[in-house]
Amino acid sequence: MIIRTWTALVVFIYVCLPCIVCKKNYTIKPRAVVPENYVKEIRPPSPKGQPVTVDVSIYVVDINSINVEDMDFRIDMFVRQRWAEPRLRMPNDIFEEGDDSVTLPSEFVDNLWQPDPYILNAKVSEIAKLQHKFLSVTLFKNKTVRYAARMHAIIACQMEFQLYPMDIQVCPMYIESFSFNNQKLRLRWGEDAVTVNPELKLLQYNVGQPLQMEETTGYMLEREANFSRLVLYFRFERQIGHHLIQTFAPSALVVMLSWFSFWIGLDAIPGRVTLLVTSMLTLVTMFTGLKSDIPPVAYVKQRIQAMDKTHCVAAWDVESAGVRCRKSSLTNLRNRRLIQVSWIDRRTGQEKVLWKEIDHQSRIIFPVFFLLFVVFYWPILLLKKSQLLGH
């Protein structure tokens, strides 16, 4: 019995005890850096009346899921915050030889005071994680703390579609402190304020460069104070190539195809009707699919004028070739001939039929109006787009 006890003691001393000692030797205790009288709820000391300055920098890894229906987009980014903490102790034994900083596990940040910025217009915001959260804290010899984390966020954006499909969406992202007003904490863009992944590519948009950044102060009514705020503007310019191939070119071809009905004889009624109905259904199908790409905004509908509120309905009368109207005051016009369907040309002496003349004139009028529409549409659209880019 005594021999077994001594054997177990020897095993514990030579096997288990060194592991425990190694674990202690390779773990930085918070008290080695944080003084005993350190209170993490109190912000770092600063000159009287001056706020603590926190430098913020962002590296944009990816932007995806630009949702025009919900008016938001998803962004993956690295966020770095840097501030001075003169209350810390920085013993030389925690730094490797030749280094002026040491990176500690994420749990260490719970022992320090830390700012509390949040994205004001974010619907969802979270720290990325796989087996653990992607965040770290780095201490420098000059008593500066750098906190870094990889984040996912869904940012709300108020989009405008007046120039669709050549629209440019300017989407701001507001970063603001939640608890400390601007007299206690100031957010400031760091040296490398915002960097975008050079390999970032979007399917339907181009990310405008450079991104506009601002430092402002916003008043929060629910907290009755002004808070330091950083603003980052993303500019998404829609690529027109897809719509040129899928929308503009096919619709123009269908419109031109409908003009062939003016060359089809009046006696070929089935052919004319089939051609026009096919063209109409094709355009309706195309624009129905186009509408599904954007939300039903109100300002597009306000461009459509209201129909005539009168109850007079035009209809062709086979016997009188007139216009029938539901108004009682016009019922006496039913038997009158309002449209002259044929006449004799005084210059040539030939009989002219109204329907044939309409076809002859339409062969010229319709292409000319379509050409005028194209000539005015594109310059006006490009001018408005250039003005928006200028702003």
UniProtKB/TrEMBL annotation:
Q: Name one GO cellular component term.
A: plasma membrane
Compartments where located: Cell membrane; Membrane
Could you tell me the superkingdom of the organism this chain comes from? Eukaryota
Primary subcellular site in the record, as a coarse category: membrane
Q: Which UniProt keywords apply?
A: Cell membrane, Ion channel, Ion transport, Membrane, Signal, Transmembrane, Transmembrane helix, Transport
Instruction: Offer an example of a GO molecular function term for this protein.
Output: chloride channel activity
Database matches in InterPro entries: GABAA/Glycine_rcpt, Neur_chan_lig-bd, Neur_chan_lig-bd_sf, Neur_channel, Neuro-gated_channel_TM_sf, Neuro_actylchol_rec, Neurotrans-gated_channel_TM, Neurotransmitter_ion_chnl_CS
**Signal peptide (UniProt feature, chain positions):** 1-22
Give TM segment ranges: 248-266, 273-290, 364-383
**Entry's Pfam families?**
Neur_chan_LBD, Neur_chan_memb
Q: Which intervals hold domain Neurotransmitter-gated ion-channel ligand-binding?
A: 36-239
Neurotransmitter-gated ion-channel transmembrane domain ranges (all copies): 248-301
Report how it sits in the membrane: Multi-pass membrane protein
Spell out the family assignment given in the record's similarity comment. Answer: Belongs to the ligand-gated ion channel (TC 1.A.9) family.
PANTHER family linked: NEUROTRANSMITTER GATED ION CHANNEL
Name the UniProt record assigns to this protein: Glycine receptor subunit alphaZ1
